Amino acid sequence: MPLTFPSSVAKKVRLALLHKCNSSRKRRDDITVVDYSHGNLSSVPEDILQYENTLEELHLEANCLQELPKWLFQCHVLRYLILSDNELDCLPPSISSLTSLERLDLSRNDLMSLPDNIRYCKLLTLVDCSSNRLERLCEGLTMLINLKELYLNDTLLEFLPGNFGRLTELQVLEMRATRMRLLPVTLPKLNKLERLDLGANSFIEFPHVLTNLPSLKELWFDSNRLISIDDSIDKLTNLTFLDISQNQLTELPSSIGDCKLTDLHISDNFLINFPDSIVNLTSLETLTANNNQIERLPNNIGNMTSLVELHLSFNNLTSIPTSIGLLHNLQFLTLDYNQIQSIPATIGSCSSLSILSLRSNCLTNLPDEIGRLSLLKVLNVSGNFLQYLPYTLLKLKNLQALWMNENQAKPLIAFEQERHSITGQRVLTCILLPQTDPSMNRHTTKNRFTTEQTIDYKNRPITLRFANDTIDEPRQLVRNPTPYPKEMRAFANILRNYNHNHQRQVNHSPPKKYSSSSNLLMICDEIPIDKSWCERTNSASVGSMNSDPLCCPLARSHDDLLCSTSPLDDIERMRPDLLPGQINDIVESKSNHSF
Description:
This is Disease resistance R13L4/SHOC-2-like LRR domain-containing protein. It holds the Pfam family LRR_14. The chain is α/β, with parallel strands linked by helices. Among the domains are: 165 residues, Alpha-Beta Horseshoe (Leucine-rich repeat, LRR (right-handed beta-alpha superhelix)); 144 residues, Alpha-Beta Horseshoe (Leucine-rich repeat, LRR (right-handed beta-alpha superhelix)), CATH 3.80.10. It has 8 helices and 20 strands. The strands form 2 sheets. It has a 17-stranded parallel beta sheet, with no helix packed on it. Strands 17-20-19 form a 3-stranded antiparallel beta sheet, with no helix packed on it. Helix 2 runs parallel beside helix 8 and helix 7 crosses helix 8. The radius of gyration is 44 Å and the shape is flat. The N terminus is likely disordered.
């Protein structure tokens, strides 16, 4: 029977249901962001159609999508579409329907090309096609005049379209790890380009067109095959970051001192010296020049007053200029694996120094002024020739780690005070001082300039010898063959049985009446012992027989004992299939019958 309500109640119920429907519709209309990422989806959920009029941001990254449905492109107000890390091999031409699209992420897919009608997505400001199989860029991509960021890393691109200069609003262009060798001549039209990444490519010459980018601030040109840098690099008046590490550079242009660099990375090259003009980089904050062949630093390096980080490990430096004390903003100084013989006393003026690493050099002492580095936290002096440490190190209240040896277990250890034998000054010493000859562990991490030594294996001295090898020089320890353990156990069983039978015959038989085995033992007791034979037998059985007291008589017996014939030997020779325990039973039974 259906439920009936009074008219007043029924009206209230209808109003409540109507309000509920309006509320649910309102909640659906408010949804602007949908996230289906990391869902292992093989197809796009159709629930998205419910929000086609309001959806502005759609996340479908990290799924297993192989294609996109046509109805997806009915979301005309969609602004952000994230499709990275899927299995898409093509982008439908229907992408042109998304006229409000601003950001399109297609990275980490299997795309080989982009549809040409992507040109109708005129509001696009960011396109990421990194980690795809793109071999060329479509003409429509160069029509996106509002594009500001374009990422083409890890693709198969060998060149850019000739009209690439149409993208005049472009600010970020990344083409790392491609097959690029040349740049289009229209590239200087990118007047607003601020960051350009061309690292890990195959450039041999520095493209001259790069010097005509007036707004360029960051230039990544590492991991190429550059031999030289264009002298007109000073035209990049706004350049602040330059990375040309891992190339084949032998020198830097003198014009580099006219730039406004704050970060300069030139590691892993073949540089021998810095140009004198490098000290004009008064705004430089980070200088990284590890793994080169640099022999000296400019004497007036102290003019680089803004320097915060200075990394010069794996070079051929022998000294540090005294002007380094003028670097009051220097916080990190690494000079590992060089040939530095002394540190200037002016190092104490680097009041901001926090980390000082002098590992694997030729230092014999440290200046007392190092105790003025009140902010020093880490000091690494392992792999040197230090005999002691300055007493002023006790003033470093912020010191957290002092490394003096490669095998040091704790960052800080206890020190002892001593008087220097010559100067009489107080010094510090510990169990790790004086440092031993570090030549055995110097340059444990080989750089590419270290010549590999060929080893002559034929003339190499032999350190492992055996007993049969010819030994020219006298040796104290010679390895002798060890008897087979089964033979030792068999001898032990023989003697144990002989002793057992002899004891039984002594206890149960009349005097002067012995079996063949007892006669043999009585004779052996009267045979004089040959000391040379005992020593030879002991050396052969040192590892197997001395641990068993029953085997000791064997080591003291005569050779005739092993050559004599006994009933046990006859049985063992005639019945090799019997085990030692079975042979013992046969011997005991024969002994009983002899009585």
